Fold these 2 entries.
Entry 1:
Amino acid sequence: MFCLRSGLFQLQPLYTTTYSTRSFLFPKMDFTGGEIYQSSFDPKAYLASFCSLGSGRDDILAFRLKKLFETFGPGGLGGDMLLDIGTGPSIYHLLSACESFPHIITTDFTDSNRQELERWLRREPGTFDWSEIVKTVCDLEGHR
Ligand SMILES: C[S@@+](CC[C@H](N)C(=O)[O-])C[C@H]1O[C@@H](n2cnc3c(N)ncnc32)[C@H](O)[C@@H]1O
């Protein structure tokens, strides 16, 4: 089983003011707390900002999709089951893995994110349209 971990973290000021080698190499990192995700994470805003072409972040999204294709595409990682921790409301990062992992388990701490994905799976109106991103990944894969 391969485990993909994703999440937000922020680089914090170094541990010490003496700039030892250790503090330089291992700056303190704080992960965003679960209560912040539960109270403030907006799935639709996230999808519009980070998973939509034309949002002004196309280069970043294209870079991510290319690297994911290199990671999971031909000659890359594969296996029986992929466990994605912190899937969020998104699936773009799993598209290239679909070919190399027959089973993919998505997880998320935040209720609204799991509900957004469940609504998408049920094809409810108003859920995110992944067709442009799927097409981009198909183009990367050469329409296999
Ligand atoms: C920035 S979003 C990333 C979503 C998605 N992986 C992506 O790349 O678009 C980070 C997600 O991780 C989830 N998360 C943070 N800490 C977690 C934890 N300890 N266990 C499970 N999910 C967690 C949050 O709820 C949030 O949906």
Entry 2:
Amino acid sequence: MSDKPSASRPPDSRPRTGAGAPDSATGTACLPGDPDPQARIARILRVDQAGEYGARRIYEGQAAVLRRGPAARAIRHMHAQELRHLERFDELLVERRVRPTLLQPLWHVAGFALGAATALMGERAAMACTVAVEEVIDEHYARQAQQLGDDEAPLRETIETFRQDELAHRDAGLAHGAEEAPAYPVLKAAIKAGSRLAIWLSERL
Ligand SMILES: [Fe+2]
Ligand SMILES: [Fe+2]
């Protein structure tokens, strides 16, 4: 990672337009039009609040279908943690004067629908959904934590703490039989692709 100023960036190293495309000059995710570090922090907070909101809705969709048994208990526990994550990002949006994503109404419906649909396929499919989503969030948080410098140490620590919770959620999904879900590789790949698309969109809108 180099700390070269962007003005000296060679023309062929301009930021790419893909999700999380690294800015080769700074090593941080940068999108065309990100004017300054503050805009970058706003983007991080907006997508993270969106992600936690979506996670909350997924577990609410699952909890609406699965009401009893060990899987339902695990879902309630993970839901409670997502509420805490969401609450913290809600506070940070206010503190840093960042607007939430415009897509929140979409995540409200799509998150719940994904949770309910997978739960209707069975407990193991619900857990496969958890594994898929939490793996994507783990990668996403790991990338963000790497990008944040010491000037944003508290935010970096928050993200790192939440990432550990998300990894525990993934492990809970595996412990509750995610890998035995019908068509597990296909289901997991589809949900991961959808989660990455949701991140990509929430970073931009
Ligand atoms: Fe979370
Ligand atoms: Fe989670």
